[in-house]
Amino acid sequence: MSLFDNINFKKLKDGLTKTRNKLFNSITETISGKAVIDNATLDEIEEILITSDIGFDTTETIIENARKSLKNERDRSTINIVETVKKELSEVLKSNYAANGDDINKFKPYVFLIVGVNGVGKTTTIGKLAYNFNKAGLKVIIGAADTFRAAANEQLEIWAKRADVEIYQKEKGTDPSSVAFDAVKKAQKENFDIVLIDTAGRLHNKANLMEELGKLKRVLAKVVPYAPNETLLVLDGTTGQNAVLQAEEFKKVTNISGLIITKLDGTAKGGVVFQISSKLKIPVKYIGVGEAIDDLQTFDPDLFVSALFETN
Ligand SMILES: Nc1nc2c(ncn2[C@@H]2O[C@H](COP(=O)(O)OP(=O)(O)OP(=O)(O)O)[C@@H](O)[C@H]2O)c(=O)[nH]1
Ligand SMILES: [Mg+2]
Question: What's this model's pTM, rounded to 2 decimal places?
Fold first, then answer.
């Protein structure tokens, strides 16, 4: 059973329209009208995949596997080609997939640390997560550990109100670790199920940001030794290759348990989800398909691929 009922296939499909146009429509254009697909056509498909932000290595694997499973000329009908590419794309996502929520009942409070560079959608995503957890009947508190930016608290307060959950905050400039510490303490004392800790995306410099993360983790573990249960890295899907680089940077300095890829609505770069998933070997947990509170969806590999290939 899934924890949230937050997948709206139509919205997912609508959000992925531009990516679908780039990926699926180009593939169908390439193969339409051809009775059988020759190697030159497979090369063209390969090129489409590479230029759809899926990445070189991932595409190589997909095409190599497709060539193997379509060894016979007669297997190379257009429908078989599309189905094979779809299957291979799903495999990429499934090989790094992890279901959400299995452990949540085992830890109280269950602590999420949400990290990522500035502007990727951390605060918005925390609002959406809070809304989903609250709707699932869990008692949620948000810890406002982005004490760097002036308007951070106000923005988070608005989201907490919308999601109808509590927020723990202190004045700007407070040590983020002390906010996180106190938020988890409060959660423990007052029987909260879920703690969502927002963090700053911009500090004085990158080394600072990474150092702060390490400190946050050490301090959280002082309240509850198992915390954080999850460290989720938020990536902006519209930035394509840059998102991959960011994830690699974060992976070097901290243990990332899952990814949230935002802003997949309205971008043609959604193919980057495949590249991120296969390169980083970290599961994608959620995706953002809009700015509203109900625009966060639990990531489902098969549905994601279907949404990229279904036109009506
Ligand atoms: N279209 C779209 N916009 C999104 C999505 N998620 C976040 N945004 C927008 O991205 C912008 C930045 O979001 P924030 O949540 O403030 O990002 P942040 O990572 O907390 O930023 P900092 O706190 O400055 O580091 C806002 O305008 C959000 O509305 C999404 O899934 N789709
Ligand atoms: Mg923020």
Answer: 0.95
More confidently predicted of 20 and 253: 20
**69 and 84 in contact (C-beta within 8 Å)?**
yes
Contact 22, 271 (CB under 8 A): yes
Ligand 1 binding pocket includes 124 (Cβ within 6 Å): yes
- Outline where DSSP puts E strands in 149-223: 166-168, 194-199
pLDDT at 183 over 90: yes
Higher pLDDT pick, 122 / 73: 122
Residue 270 in this model has a pLDDT that exceeds 70: yes
Is residue 262 lining ligand 1, measured as CB closer than 6 Å?
yes
Return the pLDDT at 312: 65
For ligand 1, say whether the CB of 265 is within 6 Å of any of its atoms: yes
Overall size of the chain counted in residues = 312
- The answer, yes or no, to whether any atom of ligand 1 lies below 6 A from the CB of 118, is yes
CB atoms within 10 A of CB 301: 21
On average, the pLDDT of the chain sits at 92
CB contact at 8 A, 121 and 234: yes
186-198 as b/e: b if 16+ CB within 10 A: bbeeeebbbbbbb
Task: Calculate how far, in angstroms, residue 118's C-alpha sits from the geometric centre of ligand 1.
Answer: 9
248-266 per-residue burial string, b: 16 or more CB within 10 A, e: under 16? eebeeebebbbbbbbbbbb
Place of tokens 């508190």: 141
Q: Is 303 exposed, middle or buried (0-12, 13-18, 19+ CB in 10 A)?
A: middle
Residues that place a CB less than 5 A from ion ligand 2: 122-123
